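ok here's Bola domain-containing protein, seq below lol
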Amino acid sequence: MAEEATITEASLKAALSERLKTVHVGVTDMSGGCGQSFSSLIVSPEFQGQNSLKRHRTVNAALKEEIKSIHAWSAKCQTPAEWERDKAAAPPTAGTENGHVTGTTA
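and the structure came out like this:
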């Protein structure tokens, strides 16, 4: 039996960047590093004119092979204009850095 390739934040980001001509991709491993649950923000001009369902189908088709190895996948899909609008409107979130909680102790 062939060993499956490990899915990582970096491998998903690279695949999305290449396959969807993105201007921004953020991928976060929500599974604590085991590569089974990911959340993402994908910004691509290819989403222009597409509704939310079509955008998600586009992403899922681009990651068809990778998604087979993932337990949970969440994607927020935006056009560059939507992303810029949301960045300008959103205040910084206290206690987070690059989508990760900071300032906590075990």
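fwiw The chain has a mean pLDDT of 86. kinda neat tbh
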